[in-house]
Structures are given as C-alpha cells and as structure tokens.
TrEMBL record:
This is Aminopeptidase N. Pfam families: Peptidase_M1, Peptidase_M1_N. Belongs to the peptidase M1 family. Residues 1-26 form the signal peptide. It comes from Saccharopolyspora rosea. Residues 52-220 form the Aminopeptidase N-like N-terminal domain. It catalyses: Release of an N-terminal amino acid, Xaa-|-Yaa- from a peptide, amide or arylamide. Xaa is preferably Ala, but may be most amino acids including Pro (slow action). When a terminal hydrophobic residue is followed by a prolyl residue, the two may be released as an intact Xaa-Pro dipeptide.
Amino acid sequence: MFRRQGLRATVAACSATAFLAAPAFAGTGTPGAPGAGDPYFPHYGNGGYDVSHYDIQLRYQPQDDHLTGTTTIVAKPTQDLSAFNLDFALKVKSVRVNGQPAEFHHEGSELTVTPPQTLPKGGLATFVVDYDDVPSTVEVDGIKPWIRTSDGALAVGEPEIAAWWFPSNDHPRDKATYDIAVTVPDGNQVLSNGVNTRTSSMNGWTTWKWRDTKPTASYLAFMAVGEYEVSNKTGAFGKPFVSAYSRGLGDLEGAAKASVERTPEVLDFLSGLFGEYPFEAEGGVVSSEGMNFALENQTRPTYSHKFFKDGANTSVVVHENAHQWFGDSVSVDTWRDIWLNEGFASYAEWLWSEKQGTGTAQQLFDHYYAQYPADDPFWQIKPGEPGAKDVFSDAVYDRGAMALQALRNVIGDRALQDVVRSWVQQKQYSNGTIEEFIKLAEQRSGKQLDDFFKVWLFTSGKPPVGPQYGVPETATTHAAAVPKAVPELDRTHALLHEQH
C-alpha cells in the first residue's frame, strides 16, 4: 500500500574532454541508493547524501489547484556520488546541481538525477528543482495524499505527503531545517511550520514566508492554504502561538477554539512530564473539510473539524502535542519503531485525564485490558513489530499506551519519568529505536526488563496478570464506573486511525 517504485540510477559516461575539464574525482563515484533501507518501506527515502536545509518557493492557485515551485536543497554527499534519487511525484521542468543543468529521469515518485560531475563525499552540494503540476491529479501506486478543498489545499499526511509538494529525501532519518514561501491570491492565508517571518502583497497576490529552524522530518513539514481566521499570540514559555481556524467551521468553530486555544496549557503540562519544549513556536490549524484525521506537524498540528463535532476535545490536542517530543523532536529510526510515537502520545492522553480528574491512567488501563478478551484480534498485533500493514493499528496506539502504564507499575513513577526525560534529552532532534529505549529503561531503572518488553511489545496474545508484567488483579474485570475520559479517547482514536 505504501511502497514506492524504486529505480536503479543510470550513470552517463563522461567524454574525454569532460573528464579533463572536471576535477580528478569526476566519474569515479557510485550512485546513491534509491531507498533508505527501511524494513517496512524499503524505497522510502534515498541514500548517498544528507540534507541540511530545504528552501521551498511556491505559487499556488486554489481555483484550479495549480502549483508551480522551485525547491533548493542544501546537502552533503555521504559518498562520492555519481547519481542520486529524490522522492517527488510532480512534473519536473528542470534540475540543476551546483548551478549546472543535470540530466534526470522521472518515474512514479522517484526522480533520478545524474549531475554533470561526480559530487565528492563531504562536500557542499545544492540541488535546484523547478516543477509545475496539479497535485490533486497525481496518483502513485494508488496513493493520492494531497487534499484539495473548496478554498485551497492541505499538504498534510503520514507517511506520504512531501513528494506531492516538494522534492526531498523522504524518510525520518534525514531531518533538515526549512524556509517555506507560498504565494497565493489575496484573501487566502497560508499556514506552515515554525515562525511567520514575513507576509507581503503585490499585484493581487500575497506571499507568506515561514521558517522552521529545528531539524524536521519531511512528512512533518506541512502547508495549509485557504480562508482561515489566523490568531497570533504569545503562548507557553514565551513562544509565538499561531492558531488558525477555517472560516467554514460553522457551528463547530466554538468547540474547535475551546480545544486548540488550550495548547499553551497542554504544552505546559507536557513539559512537566517530558522536559523542555523543543521548538521555537507552537499552535494549531483546524480544517473544515477534506481531513478525517489529525497530524502532529512540527510546531503546529493540523486537526480535522470532525474531532469537535461532539464539543470540545482536549484529548486530541494532548495527543498531537505530545508528538512534538515523541515523533517530532525524537523521530523514529524506521517506521517499524512507530510505537515510540503513538504509544507515548496515547499515554499522554491518559496522564492528562489523570490530571483532569476524569480517570486515572490505571483506571483507563483496567478498562481497556478488560474490554478486549484474550481471543480478540487486538492482541494479535505486536506494537513493537506490527508489520507494514498495521503500522497505525489500534494496538500500536492503545496496547502501546497500556505497555507504558504497565512499565510504570513495574519500575515506579519516578523511574519512568527519569527514563522518559533522559530519552527525549539524549535523542533530541535525532532518531531512536525501540531497542535503544529498552536499553535506556533498564539502565535508568536498574531492572532487567527483557521479559516485560517481550510480552508487551513483541508477543501476540494478551499479557497475563502478574506484577512482573505490570498487570494488577483489578484489570481482569471492568471497573464499576467507566472513567469519564473514555468516550472522548475512543472518539479521538477512531478518527486518528482513519488517517491510514
């Protein structure tokens, strides 16, 4: 479902004249790999170079969904590079490498580029791609993540979206900083990551410039274009707080604002659990159409209006902002490590419920443990090894959260908080694996946890009752009073799972 079509890069032979004119290393390199080697999605990302910055300049016409763009990629080859791939699905007009025209071949979402000269390992390289297309018409392997709305578009998705609006090395391992400038007809607003550095108008068009200064995975970069009510305030920790609400929300506007405007309060709560907020800005965007999900875009999550149909919903705000630590600052090393994102974000909702007095984390654990009988398919998916088809299954979210409450029961509150804070501090702005987290948990708690994690993350079946697995006797039956947080949690997770 999520596989990309990979191509073997073809290297053109250099003529004798070109060889003499080029540096001594020209022609001696090898092509970069067309994939990052992810065990679930082997053709995601690329090899042979590391990106440090993206400069994305777009012009977008909502009336016909026409997008033109120029993206400049600043990168460092990690080998002597004779050819390389970019992940990109739109029509390409030209490619330049270090200022010179380069040959390219495009198939599906693989753009294979052959520079005129081999790029030396460790050097500075720039790739400039000019493109022009209608993103909503582009489909690759059955995937069409671009969301066109009646007043604009949403470039929001996981794990696929970047290739539908800018060329990239599209894997969480290769994080970079961003400058994003989008020009749209007057009367439209553009939301993106980080800080709005400038907004200017000329000849009926307005350009919105956004800057994201911390390393960001490509799928977490986003763009929302349309008619929005945009609010600029100072939020938690003195950071800029930018929220935006689609003007088409109607009766849901109040509930959406009552939820997302609590983001600074939520971040203050989460920083008490996880440590210092890792980014330069905060906020949220609520769409009125096109989305059935929410996504933790770095610094500014995006929410579907559907989360607020039954009133205010702070659970989803907690979930997406917990991802700012788990998923955004500390990103997965491969998509197989997704429990490190979704298990922790879901557990943060439980801790918020505990703080709000709508059900303790243990009461929620007991409820979900009793809700699913031993033969339920829920217990057959392993959160630590869900498989490519079940990366975003209920078990990764809910059984993943249960595993953390069980760990809390085994090692204690103080030890768990020490593990979590140490993890986000040591891995800040980088990537992590489940195995690395387990090793840290054992080191910081002083306990041998192999059997515990094997049962909770890597074994099909319902974990048995017992102190070694963190499952108390109270979990064997439903509590007499169902925690008040359950209906909101269930609605939130039902929508989150629709995303995939």
